[in-house]
Each structure stands twice: as C-alpha cells, then as structure tokens.
C-alpha cells in the first residue's frame, strides 16, 4: 500500500470518512477531530494485500473507494472468500480490534482502492472513554455478528442455488464488479457449478 501524499485526494478521503462518522456513526463533529488528524489516506492497487492472516493490526481501515475481499487460505493453498466490502465500510479483524490477537484471514483489494487508516489503539481508547464512540463500536460489532449468523444459516439451510439468489439480493451493487470465481468461492461451490446455476436461472427467466 502507498501512503497518499497531502493532496486533494487525501483531503477528499478524510472528509468522506468524517462525513461517514457524522452520518452513519452519529458522532458530533467535535468528537471526530482527534481521530481524523491522526488518520492517513492510503492507496491500495488491485491485487494488493491490505493485511494478512497472522498480522496483529495496528490500524483499521475505512474504504473510501474501491472493493476489498476477506478470505481464508488453507495450508494447501485453497482460498475461501469470507466477505466483500466496498465504499463506506470498515476493513478490520475483530480478533485484532477487540482482543489484540492476530487476524485469522487475509484481505485483498479487488480494485484500485483508497483507504483511510485509523490507529486501532486510538479507536479502542475512544470507545472505552466516550459513550458515543462506545455506541458506534457496539453497532459495528452487532452488525458483524448478525451478518455472521445469517451466513451460517444460509450454508446450513439453503442449497447452492438459493445461496446464489440470496447473494444477488445482498450484494446487488457488487455482483457485476466481482469475477464469477470469487462469487463461487464465497458460495462454497465451484465456478462450474455456479455457471450451471446461472444458466438454469437464465432459462427460467426466458420461459
């Protein structure tokens, strides 16, 4: 990743992050200033790693623009996609953020991506010292917990075709930006199986 030198792009990224904290985070402006002054804008090219499994993160990342995937890597080199996040989302590992433990998964930019890097220790301190920050972190953690529960239920209760249809609903804005093999990995099926599912659904729409 490359630190973006002071420029219009840097100012835009930090301004967008500040706006997100105000609107989505519900924080008053005076409670965001310290965090913004200690954050930095980064550029991550397509295919670059944001952080790796085994890293104990010192920063969390706000996606200003672009697309990032979370994935697990087996000892045999097999990749399993865990999640995809785009603009207006936070990239981090809860293990690192909450307990200062190594991240269990990798993250990779799938497009040219601009991130705002936030010192994790500062974010932790704000969450422990200020009720508004505590609520923001609580909402973030709850959202991830609900997402995890829904994904588990999908794998246990739905077949591959139903999981794909749910994916198209949940990731409608991203489906056209993701290669089919990444979607297949997220669904826990092969690209060939996904191609067959897509063909069946296309035939049903025509008939």
Automatic annotation (TrEMBL):
Limits of the Cyclic nucleotide-binding domain: 23-145
Residues forming coiled coils: none
Cellular-component GO terms for this entry: cytosol
Highest rank taxon of the organism: Bacteria
Pfam families per UniProt: cNMP_binding
InterPro entries: cNMP-bd_dom, cNMP-bd_dom_sf, Env_Response_Regulators, RmlC-like_jellyroll, WH-like_DNA-bd_sf
Record-level Gene Ontology MF annotations: DNA-binding transcription factor activity
UniProt cross-references to PANTHER family, sorted A to Z: CRP FAMILY TRANSCRIPTIONAL REGULATORY PROTEIN (PTHR24567), CYCLIC NUCLEOTIDE-BINDING DOMAIN PROTEIN (PTHR24567:SF76)
Full protein name: Fumarate and nitrate reduction regulatory protein
